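Thread: quick sanity check before group meeting

JM: Hey all, I'm pulling together slides for Thursday and realized we never actually wrote out the predicted structure for the chain we discussed last week. Dropping the sequence here so it's in one place. If anyone has concerns about the input, flag it before I start.
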Amino acid sequence: MDKILLIIQREYLTRVSKKSFWIASILVPFLIAGIYAIPLYFALNSNDTKTVEIVDESGLFKDKIKSKGDITYKFINDSYKVAKDGLEKSKSDILVSIPKDILTNPDGVKIVGKESVGFGIQNDIENAIQTELRNIKLKNANIDLKVLEDNKVSVSASTFTLKDDGKEESSSSKGAIILGGLFGFILYMSAFLYGSQVMNGVIEEKSNRIIEVMISSVRPFQLMMGKIIGVGLVGITQFLLWGVLTFGASTATTAIMSGKIEAKAKAMTQSGATKAEVTKMEKDLSSKNPLSEVSQTIESVSLAKIILCFLLFYIGGYLIYSSLFAAVGAAVENASEAQQFLLPVTIPIIVSFLLFTEIMEHPNGNLAFWASMFPLTSPIDMMIRLPFGVPNWQIALSLFFLILGFIGTTWLAGKIYRVGILMYGKKISWKEIAKWVVYKG
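JM (edit): ok, ran it. Output follows.
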């Protein structure tokens, strides 16, 4: 046991002391916070107002399309040709031509810009014309627009989960999707990242013949387990750092951005904006922050349960795949030779992540259930399901199968490792590896 601890200590301290470890540990949380903070910042500070000239040959839209937000509409009396020729020298950014037969030819609208017209502003112009065109047609059909507008209803439903005791518990499908996707992606990447570190470490020591010296004082199985556990502890340390720093960076960023949203709402109110316009602005900007939905999901599932399950499934999944990666590393002499043996190991990881969409749509379906029970896919797929609410007995059963899977893969990897670690100068095949598994000695 002391020898395994020494190997664990060596693997852990060697990797944690590297600059790359600390750069990744500190940089990633701020990148995560920046994913939503940067677009929100630019949305708050955007002063990119566009002036749009409109040539209305139909005469139906005159002064009916109102300026709003960062788009100013201006109707002009020039012909389309004259307006187009003068666009370059004018202060306007975009020219819109509405044809005379717009009622029968709605696709005849032209949008010309000094520069390429962005999708967003194109969509705003089309919606403005489409809305007014709809009003004109309704009026021509003698339909009262006021009655129609008064009967327009916007539905925004709140979602709840019915618990065993009959109580309703608030839930958020959007937050569950974000959180489940995040967990699944982290475990997907960690299986490759840390498993590859174990494999590359074995290959490096084997090619440098350092392994021969180490085997003289420790058993091959002890060496394999020491490397696996040591690298695994590095992963857990990095995840803990990411969790703490991400929470701190995201909380601070959210507080700053919330203050800026309130300030903008106050400025809009003072400039004469309606309450509906201010509310829409606040809703649009708040929707850019996924943390509100995620925090609601965490509250409904239990933060302690999420952290505990994440650690257990991370450890279980890592131990299974790192032992297989270690076996591959022991069987070959360089990274290029390892590629032919990695496919069977990586296919379950890839498949488990490819099931993401199906599990999100049907988190309690048969496919989601069995995928979260099979040891090679359960670490990722169970964590994708967890934010949607998973019964405790299913989590316990999945962990039981995961432990059995770890025991089986470790036994298999140990058989391959003890023979392959000292095998040099021989091209290895699947048939050869099968012989190592049944070899007794």
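AS: nice. The two ends are 22 Å apart (CA to CA). The longest helix spans residues 220-270.
JM: adding both to the slides.
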